[in-house]
Every structure is written in C-alpha cells, then in structure tokens.
Amino acid sequence: MSSSDAGVVDVGGDPPKQPSKREKSKDSRPITRDSAPLEDRLALLEDIISKMGEKYTEMADSFNSFNEDVRSMEKSVATAMATFRSELEKLQGNITRRDEERKNLIEELVARVAEVEDLKTRVTVTPRNRQFGRFGYVQQTPNGQNLPCPLKAQQHQSCTFSCPAIFNLYKHYA
C-alpha cells in the first residue's frame, strides 16, 4: 500500500478510494463503509459532484467554443461564396462585352477590307497621268493601261473609276 492510500481502509474488498480535499484537511482517521459517518459520505459525494460539474463546465465550454468556430466558418464560407458569385458574374459580363467588341471589330475589319478592295478597282488620277488634249484626262488603270477620258477636262475635276466614261472604257480594255 502506498503512502497516499494509508488514510483510507476498505473493509468490503472494493479498491481503495482517494481521499477528498475536505478529508485531507480534516483528521486522517481511517474511514470504512460501515464506520464512515453520514457527513463524511456527503462531503465525499459533494466533492465528486463538484468535480463532475467542473468537467461538465469544461466540456460545455469546449462545445460552445466549437460551435462558435463552426458558425464563424459558415459565415466565412457564405462570404466567400457571395464574393465568388459576384466575381463570376463580372467575369461573364467581361466575356460577353469582349465578344461583342470582337464581333464589332471583325465587322469593321470586313468593311475596311471591302473598302480597300473597292479602292483597288478604281481608276485614279495622278499628275503624271494627266495629258492635255481634246480628251482632257488620261487615266491609268490598276493593271497599268492608259485610258483616255472622252469628257472634257472642265466637265469634272477628277476622273475616277466612278466616271461612266472611264468605267465603260475600262470594261472594254480589261
């Protein structure tokens, strides 16, 4: 038997019990089940109940702390989801806007290409192409042919492919 078990002697054959704080402060006479006064037994039960209360309080505090942590995490997840949704909506809006911009740029590019093709087919007047004479202007086509304009020079300022006379002559030489 150890020195801490010396104060309690159990006659009934049960394992020895640890003395309570209240018993340690009192005299250390041996207590048996049969001989222990009712007050000592009540004191022992009160100590056990107070220890159980302390353990219950610790467990309740731990559980409450756990619940608070879970609530905090739920709020964080809800905030993150809301942020994610708003960012996703912004991204989808940007994608839609960029698709529209790309579509508009492609349409503008197609229009410019058509305009360039139109300009390539026009007959242009350059200073070296001008000749004086009864036909006024001589036009040079994109393939290098010289075409006289049957209109007099004073009738129009520049003779281009849109001029009906040049257009007909161009069709003839082309």
User: How would a crystallographer describe the biggest sheet?
Assistant: 2 strands, antiparallel
End-to-end Cα distance, whole Å, is: 128 Å
Mean pLDDT value: 73
Count of discrete alpha- or pi-helical segments spanning 4 or more residues: 3
Instruction: Name the assembly state.
Output: single chain
| General form | rod-shaped
Radius of gyration: 54 Å
**Class from helix and strand fractions:** mainly alpha
- Count of DSSP strands: 2
Largest beta sheet: strand ordering: 1-2
Biased composition (Basic and acidic residues): 20-38
Region (Disordered): 1-38
How would you describe what is shown here?
By secondary structure, the chain is mainly α. It folds into two domains: 34-119; 127-173, no CATH class. 57% of the residues lie in helices and 3% in strands. It has helices spanning 21-25, 38-121, 164-173; strands spanning 138-140, 146-148. A two-stranded antiparallel sheet has the order 1-2. Mean pLDDT is 73; it is low at 1-13, 128-136 and 152-157.
Compact description:
This protein has three helices and two strands; from the N terminus they run H-H-E-E-H. The chain is mostly helical and 174 residues long.
Supply database-style keywords.
174 residues; mainly alpha; 57% helix; disordered N terminus
Secondary structure layout plus pairing:
Blueprint: H1 21-25, H2 38-121, E1 138-140, E2 146-148, H3 164-173
Antiparallel strand pairs: 1-2
